[in-house]
Amino acid sequence: MPTLTLDQAEAIAGKALKKGRELKLKPLTVVVLDSAGVVTLLKREDGSSLLRPDIAYGKAWGCLGMGFGGREMARRAQAAPGFVSALNQVSGGRVVPVPGGVLVRNSKAQIIGAVGISGDLSEQDEACAVAGIEAAGLTPDTGG
Fold it and tell me: Staple partner for 128: which of 16, 65, 70, 85, CB 3.0–4.6 Å?
């Protein structure tokens, strides 16, 4: 199974945090998962609050587990709250169904990982994830 490398994860996180500073966002936390859902990299800016790593992980993990980006997760949460509640039940509460979770695809459109960012508005978190993924030469899938 193709997966994200540590070098790619570092490039994603570095650009995502840089984008957050360019946009003057609140302190961000970035979690990058490989295709097996294992944390490859976690970066937390100074001042990022206590739950941000868990939220960023939940955004990325939920997208990876379901196979679609955070925007689609949010749509499904709104349209079928019972399903998302059940999903959270079977996943041990690990799914955060909002924008800011983005799948990472390679040149063959295969899912090779996911990025979750938390710290500002979900749409801003997502914009930083997209910038990071693109900077690494990969394709973001927001579910949009």
Answer: 16
Which pairing describes strands 101-105 and 139-141: parallel, antiparallel, or unpaired?
antiparallel
- What single-letter DSSP state applies at residue 34? E
The separation between CA 109 and the C-alpha centre of its own chain, rounded to angstroms, equals 17
* Signed CA dihedral, 62, 123, 68, 140: sign only: negative
Structure tokens at 125: 């978190």
Q: Which residues pair with 14 in a beta bridge?
A: none
Print the SS3 string covering 55-121: HHHHHHHHHHHHCCCHHHHHHHHHHCHHHHHHHHHHCCCCCCCCCCEEEEECCCCCEEEEEEEECCC
Average pLDDT value for residue range 85-90: 92
pTM recorded for the entire structure: 0.95
